[in-house]
């Protein structure tokens, strides 16, 4: 049956079956995918997972304590691995090995759940919203990293406790991203450099952990985290724990890229099987990375673990080593911003192309060249829209520079729908799992538990944002 379906897809695509058999084209009519294998795919997933969220893990473990903090990291890792494997089976439909391809996350939701309110409509809202906030967070974090370089090399800042405005760094990075977002094939170039990005992340890990060890332990740590007392009330402790759940959820939020990554796999083997192995390798590596950052950071700083590890060790010598760590993070996040922006860019530009298919402003492509080698096509709509998007993200980051609270909000609004709800519901629909069976109940239990955690994290992040708004004015926050 699967072989018959495959032959039907080849026939409908209008391809010569011999060319498909010879490997010149895949069954969907596109040139044969020859790029990614198991190792490069797992490396790409690791690059997609690890980002700004890793910087708050020491603070999260401090709020939750050794028992709950470590357990939460492991539970989120296992849930993410399980739902990512469910999503891998949704790349092709109806058969997970030879069915029709879904090129994006939204395509997979549409194919498996249809255009109903609970399916396509919700996905079309959740994914761009989460991607937009995620990109805003990267704007915020990149400026922090560059600013800490200046802090580290300016000893007077340590002595005088001087403060600097966020805005110049934000504007400078915004201008850089405007330029980079206009370069064709740039996301593919960053994808090709995923191994370099992983090396950067590991270098940051070793520098960060080494700095934590240099600071030395001896700080008070407990099994239950920050203790209720003079400095913190029971209510504040609860809000912080909820916020920590959101921060950890954000650290594991990357599912919206998995379908696109799977679409680059070679077709020689069933993509879902290769993707599942890549998920295991990526989550194992990432969880180890997160455990080291969270546990080493808590052991070094104790109950006073910083909300952002970059700002936490930014005032400790050797300054040149701190500079390197921050520069590594900037390099990684500049590329990650461009990679994660593509779903938003693609969605808006595809809609505009369908809506104004006869407009020269939207559809016109104008060949340009820089020198003799670098040639590309310019488009006025692409130039205008992408510039406006980066300006809005940068402005939002300037107005709301609240790192931990925004991380928790991002994790709360993004993790449950994109990482848990849609993969579970698609898998149920695809496998036609009957209601009230043991498997249906188990899947829905995961859904409900993750929803409740997301709800708690949302409340914690909103409470934290309200405090931040009371303490700082928009566009005037200092560090």
From TrEMBL:
<dbReference type="InterPro" id="IPR013057">
    <property type="entry name" value="AA_transpt_TM"/>
</dbReference>
<keyword id="KW-1133">Transmembrane helix</keyword>
<keyword id="KW-0812">Transmembrane</keyword>
<feature type="transmembrane region" description="Helical">
    <location>
        <begin position="440"/>
        <end position="465"/>
    </location>
</feature>
<feature type="transmembrane region" description="Helical">
    <location>
        <begin position="38"/>
        <end position="58"/>
    </location>
</feature>
<keyword id="KW-0029">Amino-acid transport</keyword>
<protein>
    <recommendedName>
        <fullName>Amino acid transporter transmembrane domain-containing protein</fullName>
    </recommendedName>
</protein>
<feature type="transmembrane region" description="Helical">
    <location>
        <begin position="278"/>
        <end position="299"/>
    </location>
</feature>
<feature type="transmembrane region" description="Helical">
    <location>
        <begin position="167"/>
        <end position="183"/>
    </location>
</feature>
<feature type="transmembrane region" description="Helical">
    <location>
        <begin position="319"/>
        <end position="340"/>
    </location>
</feature>
<dbReference type="GO" id="GO:0016020">
    <property type="term" value="C:membrane"/>
</dbReference>
<dbReference type="Pfam" id="PF01490">
    <property type="entry name" value="Aa_trans"/>
</dbReference>
<feature type="transmembrane region" description="Helical">
    <location>
        <begin position="189"/>
        <end position="213"/>
    </location>
</feature>
<keyword id="KW-0813">Transport</keyword>
<feature type="transmembrane region" description="Helical">
    <location>
        <begin position="383"/>
        <end position="400"/>
    </location>
</feature>
<feature type="domain" description="Amino acid transporter transmembrane">
    <location>
        <begin position="37"/>
        <end position="464"/>
    </location>
</feature>
<feature type="transmembrane region" description="Helical">
    <location>
        <begin position="406"/>
        <end position="428"/>
    </location>
</feature>
<feature type="transmembrane region" description="Helical">
    <location>
        <begin position="64"/>
        <end position="83"/>
    </location>
</feature>
<dbReference type="GO" id="GO:0006865">
    <property type="term" value="P:amino acid transport"/>
</dbReference>
<keyword id="KW-0472">Membrane</keyword>
